[in-house]
Backbone:
């Protein structure tokens, strides 16, 4: 992506985002740390790469389990036979979720073959 | 099986208002020669009443069922009639949702699809699974590191016999060489004691696991369910029979001697692996004189994320250096640790560990590009760095420099050696001999006795990892029954490697269970058909042996190809490759598809375009476009193929000689970011496609009448336009002159 001339990556904190009421354009004011200066650019649209909040942040699961302050399940506190996978345990992407889900499926085979 | 047909047309979801059902029934009876009373309609076929309607006929002896309703990709649980030959005709997504209602063109379209569906069942047969005798369901694990040990335990605890082969004298791999581990649980502030030793003990005492230490695999013969593996231990050897492999051969640190620009070669510049050894022994010292190190510099991405070395991120080195910085701080409270990084990558919860380390005033983190390591004169070194956040060049004195060394998979060296051998072989026997004489042969891992080579073939874009490059197809390799786990697959930390190992163990179990029922493995994990060649017509041209992406075809002493059926993934690339057209599956053959396309109504006033669409991406993309009600030209007739690699060029010739005006081949992306579910199918189709032009020239037809397009599932919104544009181009060329004949 870095090689695409139409993609610009900037390290820096965003100070302000304002909308032009007439055009609907959005202006971002930010600090370009590597260039050591302030920048001001106008865009058609701004996308916020928002973080993940586990569903257990607000609604707890009906088993005795501990959570981190961010609401993630602490796996060590789960009873044997109960498994937390995917974003319940830590923020993960699709590939890692598939990986964990495949891995935990074997536990069910182990439980019935015991 | 004497076939008794039942054709069921659903009128729901708009089909009944797009197509004249009475006419459809009548023309199917005539066009596909089915008794009129065996063609029925229902308002909502997937409703309990609709299903009962079909099941009542099954009780009366109907055994061959053609359902003209929605896409076969939906309602498969409802339309499931065990023991019957079933064909789903996609009247909803391919006709009523994409065409103008109640027109002549739409009517003909529906009639063609239903006729083709009936013909497919007339020509096809119910599969009879090919179950080989004396199958083993035991599992072989290669590697006794964290991944291998975990995989062995997971499979053994699920009730399978496991053989574990480790080349070192002791189990544990890198994990056993660690002083401490990065924190595994909240609040991520204390280093954990290594857990590997409990795991080693559990493996060594497990009743279902047999461990071979100081051992390597000398030879692997056979196929899934029937692998004969010769294990060499201290000069002796033993052969064991297993059903599937988990390859957890692990990684090696990148060759630090190539990192002279980061000071390697100087005694006080060490790798993170050497740092672990030192911490485990006791004090953190300056190797040149044994003096306690007080200023330790860590250089991140040593070899990684560097086009001249390893282009990828080695994933766990950021956390490792943070951990080792803690060693420095815990062993000596006066000492400082300085980490020079491009970006700190501690995704997910490990961010909390990073935060904790940031809060230690004795740990300095600096974003910088290290430009060199120079001598400070007093036995110490200067780390020279540029592009810091303050925009200035800096020079920092350190008495010890630790390079956060990158990860190289164990599979890379054998792949590179074998690729070199292939290249040399192309230059002739002398060049090949010279290569063998002059090149150091690396340790092989599998030593497969396969015609297609002894190790996993190189995968473009995988940098030597045994990876599938697929988000959803993890653990898969191009050798059926061999699943990779841990750092041989991708750089990953120990928690991830443990999860990965459990996943690979499940895949290995699925493999042995599937071959036990004569069913294919992923991605056709339901399929009980298999390639059944008519060998008397085989000319031993070996095209199938060369093209099979999975090395499933072997050759006997006379050079005649034969299938090792459990290695086969049923992509039918062999069917596409065979110039004698002798490879058939019960529901997919040159004759079946050929007969289907010959049933397409050819009309002198109308254009017809045949689309051979890959079932894996192109077909679902067409369904998605239909859900969005994007119009498709009614000139188009879509026939799904198992993989574009299964396309036999005779279908293209057949299509043109029956008067079809254009042929479009729709397959997955190939090359480095390939999306082909059978890895090489679409690429091979493209190679064969280059020969189509010759055929068209012979027929004196324009080359533009036949085209191959790559499409990914996410491009469904562009697909109807791509197809309609192709139809328009064919219309510009004009009708196929063969139409009149």
Residues:
């Amino acid at each position: 992506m870095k090689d695409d001339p139409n993609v610009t990556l900037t390290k820096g904190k965003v100070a302000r985002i304002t909308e032009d009421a007439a055009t609907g354009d959005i202006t971002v004011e930010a600090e370009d740390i590597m260039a050591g200066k302030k920048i001001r650019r106008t865009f058609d649209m701004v996308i916020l790469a928002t973080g993940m909040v586990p569903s257990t942040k607000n609604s707890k699961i009906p088993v005795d389990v501990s959570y981190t302050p961010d609401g993630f399940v602490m796996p060590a506190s789960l009873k044997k036979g109960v498994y937390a996978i995917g974003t319940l345990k830590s923020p993960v992407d699709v590939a890692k979720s598939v990986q964990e889900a495949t891995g935990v499926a074997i536990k069910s085979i182990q439980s019935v073959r015991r | 099986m004497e076939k008794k047909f039942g054709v069921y047309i659903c009128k729901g979801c708009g089909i009944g208002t797009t197509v004249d059902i009475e006419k459809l029934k009548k023309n199917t009876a005539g066009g596909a020669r089915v008794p009129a009373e065996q063609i029925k309609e229902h308002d909502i076929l997937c409703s309990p009443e609709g299903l009962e309607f079909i099941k009542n006929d099954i009780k009366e002896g109907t055994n061959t069922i053609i359902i003209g309703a929605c896409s076969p990709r939906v309602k498969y649980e409802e339309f499931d009639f065990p023991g019957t030959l079933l064909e789903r005709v996609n009247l909803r997504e391919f006709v009523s949702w994409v065409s103008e209602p109640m027109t002549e063109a739409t009517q003909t379209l529906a009639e063609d699809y239903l006729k083709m569906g009936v013909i497919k069942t007339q020509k096809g047969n119910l599969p009879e699974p090919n179950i080989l005798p004396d199958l083993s369901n035991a599992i072989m694990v290669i590697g006794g590191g964290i991944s291998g040990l975990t995989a062995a335990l997971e499979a053994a605890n699920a009730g399978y016999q496991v053989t574990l082969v480790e080349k070192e004298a002791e189990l544990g791999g890198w994990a056993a060489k660690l002083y401490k581990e990065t924190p595994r649980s909240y609040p991520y502030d204390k280093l954990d004691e290594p857990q590997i030793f409990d795991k080693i003990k559990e493996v060594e005492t497990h009743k279902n696991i047999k461990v071979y230490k100081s051992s390597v695999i000398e030879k692997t013969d056979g196929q899934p369910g029937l692998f004969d593996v010769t294990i060499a231990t201290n000069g002796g050897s033993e052969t064991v029979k297993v059903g599937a492999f988990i390859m957890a051969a692990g990684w090696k640190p990148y060759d630090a001697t190539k990192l002279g620009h980061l000071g390697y070669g100087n005694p006080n510049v060490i790798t993170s692996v050497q740092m672990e050894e030192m911490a485990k022994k006791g004090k953190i010292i300056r190797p040149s004189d044994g003096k306690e190190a007080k200023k330790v510099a860590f250089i991140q991405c040593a070899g990684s994320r560097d086009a001249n070395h390893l282009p990828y991120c080695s994933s766990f080195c950021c956390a490792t250096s943070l951990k080792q910085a803690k060693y420095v701080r815990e062993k000596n409270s006066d000492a400082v640790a300085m980490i020079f990084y491009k970006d700190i990558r501690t995704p997910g919860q490990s961010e909390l560990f990073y935060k904790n380390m940031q809060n230690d005033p004795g740990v300095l983190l600096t974003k910088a590009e290290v430009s060199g390591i120079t001598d400070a004169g007093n036995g110490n070194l200067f780390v020279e760095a540029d592009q810091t956040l303050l925009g200035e060049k800096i020079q920092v004195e350190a008495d010890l420099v630790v390079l956060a060394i990158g990860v190289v998979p164990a599979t890379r060296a054998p792949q590179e050696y074998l690729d070199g051998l292939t290249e040399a072989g192309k230059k002739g026997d002398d060049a090949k001999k010279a290569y063998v004489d002059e090149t150091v042969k690396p340790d092989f891992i599998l030593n497969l006795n396969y015609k297609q080579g002894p190790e996993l073939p190189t995968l473009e874009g995988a940098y030597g990892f045994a990876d599938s490059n697929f988000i959803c197809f993890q653990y898969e390799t191009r050798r059926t029954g061999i699943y990779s786990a841990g750092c041989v697959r991708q750089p990953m930390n120990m928690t991830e490697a443990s999860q990965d190992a459990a996943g690979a163990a499940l895949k290995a179990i699925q493999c042995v269970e599937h071959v036990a029922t004569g069913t294919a493995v992923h991605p056709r994990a339901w399929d009980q058909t298999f390639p059944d060649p008519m060998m008397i017509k085989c000319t031993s041209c070996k095209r199938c042996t060369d093209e099979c992406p999975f090395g499933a075809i072997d050759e006997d002493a006379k050079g005649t190809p034969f299938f090792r059926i459990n290695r086969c993934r049923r992509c039918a690339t062999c069917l596409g490759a065979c110039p004698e057209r002798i490879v058939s599956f019960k529901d997919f053959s040159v004759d079946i598809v050929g007969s289907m396309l010959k049933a397409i109504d050819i009309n002198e006033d109308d254009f017809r375009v045949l689309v051979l669409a890959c079932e894996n991406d192109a077909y679902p993309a067409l369904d998605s476009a239909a859900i969005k009600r994007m119009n498709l030209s009614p000139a188009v007739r879509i026939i799904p193929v198992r993989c574009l690699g299964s396309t036999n060029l005779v279908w293209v010739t057949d299509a043109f000689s029956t008067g079809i005006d254009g042929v479009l081949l729709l397959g997955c992306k190939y090359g480095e970011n390939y999306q082909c579910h059978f890895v090489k199918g679409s690429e091979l189709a493209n190679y064969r496609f280059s020969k189509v032009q010759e055929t068209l020239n012979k027929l004196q037809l324009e080359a533009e009448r036949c085209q191959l397009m790559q499409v990914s599932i996410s491009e469904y919104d562009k697909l109807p336009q791509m197809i309609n544009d192709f139809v328009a181009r064919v219309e510009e060329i004009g009708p196929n002159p063969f139409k009149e004949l």
User: Anything to note?
Assistant: Chain B has a mean pLDDT of 96. The interface with chain A takes residues 154-155, 157-159, 185-187, 347-349, 387, 389, 391, 471-472, 474-475, 496, 498-503, 505-507, 509 of chain B (CB under 8 Å). The two ends of chain B are 38 Å apart (CA to CA).
